[in-house]
Design brief:
Layout lengths: L1 E3 L5 E3 L7 E3 L2 H9 L6 E4 L9 H4 L1 E2 L8 H7 L3 E5 L5 H7 L5 E4 L4 H14 L3 H22 L5 E8 L4 E2 L5 H8 L2 E3 L27 E5 L7 H8 L5 E5 L1 H5 L4 H17 L1
Helix pairs in contact: 5-6, 6-10
Length: 268
């Protein structure tokens, strides 16, 4: 069976995979939700949903570094990775072990294509089609829900010291747009630029953020971070569930409901 991944790279499988290794948490969650948990033999230490996986499956490393000997011993017939999360060097090494599918997710449409691809690759066409339809319906419903919300200028931080924010050409930025949050760094040349806090002093009022979002991952922001940032940025600040803004795949269904509740907190 020949197949092309989202980088247009061809992979060849003899049959539907029976031993899958997933190197990205949100993709691991999707694999389970498509009914493939029994086929999943290896995961990363960050694959925390569903919770029992860390106890039931072999942990092969993280998203940037893996134990190749462990992976070889698991005898995978498919490895699933991601362009942003995994390194080129790692992928090249893994391709010597088994076929590797690499996703490239910028938009929800990219995510839906990925879901369909995994359905085809892993003999879960019906399940993947049903999931895609549910997400499509939920997206339509959410767009209707959010249409009367005002556009809010936001800064979405992802790291502390160095301070880093979400820039352009990435999934989080697309999710912000869907929520009618105008990312003030959306024109930055980098996907995740470093920023100096002093930068916010020089912004004219019409460019300053009205809302700063501080997620639970990849850096777990806390109330103390709000206190520190408040000394430099005068606007509303919210701690948010980073998984809802950055995990694609089946998590999108939960995200739409989360966003509805979140918008209601902004209105109150």
């Amino acid at each position: 069976m020949k197949f092309k991944d989202q980088l247009n790279k061809e992979l060849v499988l003899d049959d539907y995979p029976k031993r899958i290794i997933s190197l990205v948490p949100s993709q691991t969650e999707l694999i389970v939700d498509l009914g493939l948990e029994k086929n999943l033999v290896g995961i990363t230490k960050f694959c925390i949903h569903p919770k029992q996986l860390l106890l039931d499956k072999t942990i092969v490393g993280g998203t940037k570094k893996v134990n190749y000997n462990k992976i070889i011993s698991l005898q995978p017939d498919l490895i699933i990775g991601n362009k942003e999360e995994n390194t080129k060097e790692m992928i090249h090494e893994l391709e010597e072990i088994a076929p590797v599918y690499i996703s490239n997710i910028i938009t929800i449409e990219d995510s839906l294509k990925f879901i369909s691809d995994i359905g085809q690759l892993c003999n879960r066409k019906i399940e993947s089609k049903q999931l895609v339809q549910k997400i499509d319906n939920a997206k339509i419903d959410f767009i209707e829900f959010v249409k009367n919300q005002p556009i809010r200028r936001v800064a979405y931080f992802i790291w502390n010291k160095p301070w880093m924010v979400v820039g352009s050409n990435n999934y989080i930025n697309e999710i912000l747009k869907l929520n009618k949050f105008e990312n003030i760094f959306r024109k930055a040349p980098n996907r995740y630029p470093d920023v100096y806090i002093e930068y916010f002093y020089d912004l004219s009022p019409e460019l300053k953020p009205e809302l700063v979002l501080l997620p639970s991952e990849p850096y777990h922001f806390k109330k103390k971070d709000i206190k520190e940032l408040k000394q430099h940025i005068d606007c509303s600040m919210k701690l948010v569930d980073g998984e809802m803004f950055s995990w694609y795949g089946s998590r999108i269904l939960k995200a739409f409901e989360y966003f509805k509740k979140f918008h209601k907190t902004l209105d109150s």
